[in-house]
Amino acid sequence: MQTPGTLHVVATPIGNLGDLSPRALETLRTVDAICAEDTRHTRQLLSHFGVERPLLALHQHNEDAQASQLVARLQAGESLALVSDAGTPLVSDPGFRLVGAARAAGLRVSPVPGACAAIAALSVAGVASDRFVFEGFLPARGGARRERLVLLAAEPRTLIFYESAHRISESLADLAAAFGGSRRAVLARELTKLFETVLDDTLDGLRATVEADPNQRKGEFVLVVEGAGDDADAKLQEGLRLYAKLAEHLPPSTAAKLAAELSGAPRKALYGAG
Ligand code: SAM
User: Which residues form the Tetrapyrrole methylase domain (predicted)?
Assistant: First the structure.
């Protein structure tokens, strides 16, 4: 039996079923019901482990509506688990509205930690890991993606992105254009699965490998990109400070040009800021 009125946020494997922890299994076996992103997908996982608990669908299209009903069930004393299709719920997956609603209602929300593709990739990348930013998926549309990357080009911390098979080539090309092709990056593909591959190269090098070999475009990807370094951060901060002052008296394009020249920060990262 689980503590009544508790929402257990349970991580599930990102490929290798051996990564479901004993505590995750025990929790899934003993809750009153399991909220799942895709009930058919989770049913397969549960039947592999011989777990038979009721499943409730909770995905991005019904989460707002479902959250209040689920909170009512928790308030009535039920214990519920929240899982997503793979890895840690809420990490580029549904769940934050339900967790927020449960917290707002004063209910206990308890994690059962486990696999997360971003952290698994970082743990094998060998790129500075003391400070990092998780960017999730880049925008799907090319223009929006390139705009986002301009803003991230001077980020000094290690950057972690999720990417899918059908956009990996385009994203690597846009990253190389925005960050410079010589920036170091690690591409982690199909982690914990049969075709697990971790490539450590420059952005240009990764792009060439992925373009030359169709097998390297298959599966699921995490891209870990080295940060621009503190020097770039200092330049950007100085550039933004100058731009804010100059834009009070000059047209934005002139202010950005001057601030970029004086600080060494990229003009595009300054234009329109603030
Ligand atoms: N909640 C999940 C987690 O904790 O990692 C992530 C869910 S997100 C919808 C799915 C994305 O995670 C994939 O497109 C891919 O970028 C990444 N991913 C998931 N499993 C992976 C794996 N085994 N190897 C590499 N990347 C993976």
Answer: 6-204
Residue 219 Cα to ligand 1 middle (Å): 10
How does residue 238 score in pLDDT terms, banded at 50, 70 and 90?
confident
Measured in degrees and rounded to the nearest 5, phi and psi for residue 185 equal: -150, 160
Q: What CA–CA distance (Å, rounded) separates 58 from 122? A: 29
Q: For 165-214, what is each residue's pLDDT tens digit?
A: 999 999 999 999 999 999 999 999 999 999 999 999 999 999 999 999 99
Query: How many domains would you assign to the chain?
Result: 3
Q: Are residues 161 and 252 in the same domain?
A: no
Please give the residue range of the domain that contains residue 247. 232-270
The total number of residues written for the chain in this structure: 274
268 CA distance to ligand 1 middle (Å): 31
Q: Where are the beta strands (DSSP E) in the chain?
A: 6-10, 33-36, 55-57, 80-83, 108-112, 132-137, 158-164, 184-189, 197-202, 220-225
Ligand 1 atom at minimal distance to the Cα of residue 188 = 25
Residues 198 and 244 in one domain: no
- Based on the domain organization, do 55 and 131 belong to the same domain? no
Q: Ligand 1 atom 16: the closest Cα is on which residue?
A: 162
My answer on whether 111 and 147 are in the same domain is: no
